[in-house]
Design a protein that fits this description.
47% of the residues lie in helices and 1% in strands. It has helices spanning 2-41, 78-85, 98-109, 113-126, 169-177, 203-212, 224-241, 249-264, 270-279, 298-309, 314-317, and strands at 96-97, 135-136. Helix 7 packs across helix 10 (298-309).
């Protein structure tokens, strides 16, 4: 009898969960579409006034930057690490609430409310925690093939580097060197940024990037084509060098999504990306390049993601694996 009751309870809970997720997806999509429409019908935010009043980064003035100390938690996401390095999220990267992440990510990078709920809620469910009441450490999100994935643009695969908290200098340099776009219209970082202090955990990364880009004109932008080409190279390299390489369609789309933030939030500006990716720091004077009143919506963002992912030639040049 206990077995029957338990079985029915599990079935009931499963059905309830599926129905709720279906209804929530409809709600989120409808909300996102309405925000996209508002963006179309309203004026852009003024340059210099993208970050909301009262929030860190207002007017391009970011809180003091401190790189992580030993024992502090960091992850494979440069955007979240930068927020912790500036104290926008807890500097130790620990005990962050998902709802706090929603608020702070929205204000810092001008993601839409719908986008800012979707991603933290996805992370919460990935970790089997409550979005409403749960907390996490930054390193928690590096569960393999969750948020973290093989063939990252700026991290070596976990097969080669277990800790994903720090960027890889050669990969950052290769990404910056693939840029072919015109000089950026807006730029917060100098084209020849100084190295961080020797005791910074980012010193070796930044020193390598500086040396590898000495003969390269950084005064240019990344384009969707550049990103497609580099993602294809990374997938080919990773498949060759990583005996445990694995990427399904979802992971590939996530990789293109991560890369597409460099085109949208950062406008592809290589000097700013140099600072952001090598030091995980927001440059003085920087603000999100997304100026839409309601922020970057999922619908708008995925137009860039699809353009990047569908431009990856490696996905059509390799044999079909049908069996």
């Amino acid at each position: 009898m206990v077995l029957i009751v338990t079985a029915f309870r599990r079935i009931g809970r499963g059905i309830t969960s599926k129905v709720f997720e279906f209804c929530f997806a409809i709600y989120l999509f409808s909300w996102d579409v309405s925000l996209t429409l508002i963006n179309v019908l309203t004026l852009k935010r003024k340059v210099g006034r993208v970050t909301p009043k009262g929030y860190a980064g207002e007017g391009g003035i970011w809180p003091e930057y401190n790189p992580p100390r030993p024992g502090e938690s960091r992850c494979s996401c440069p955007a979240l690490n930068a927020m912790a390095n500036h104290g926008i999220l807890p500097r130790d990267g620990r005990n962050i609430t998902f709802r706090e992440l929603t608020e702070k990510v929205r204000a810092t990078y001008n993601f839409s409310p719908s986008f800012s709920v979707y991603v933290p809620r996805y992370i919460a469910h990935l970790l089997n925690r409550s979005y409403r009441t749960g907390t996490f450490d930054l390193s928690d999100i590096d569960v393999h093939n969750g948020i973290e994935h093989d063939a990252s643009l700026v991290r070596r695969d976990p097969y080669h580097q277990t800790s994903q908290g720090m960027p890889d200098g050669p990969l950052v340099a290769s990404l910056l060197r693939c840029a072919t776009g015109p000089p950026p219209k807006l730029q917060a970082s100098p084209s020849d940024p100084p190295l961080p202090p020797n005791d910074s955990p980012y010193f070796a990364v930044t020193a390598h990037v500086a040396k590898a880009t000495t003969d390269f004109d950084l005064n240019r932008t990344l384009t969707p084509g550049d990103l497609s080409r580099r993602l294809g190279e990374r997938r080919r390299e990773s498949a060759h060098d990583n005996a445990q390489y694995s990427q399904d369609h979802g992971h590939k789309m996530f990789g293109s999504s991560n890369g597409s933030t460099l085109l949208t939030i950062f406008g592809g500006c290589v000097p700013d990306l140099y600072t952001f990716l090598s030091e995980e720091r927001l440059p003085d004077g920087w603000e999100s390049r997304v100026r839409d009143q309601m922020g970057l919506t999922l619908l708008t963002f995925n137009q860039t993601v699809l353009r990047v992912e569908l431009g990856i030639e490696e996905e059509v040049n390799q044999p079909l694996n049908l069996m």
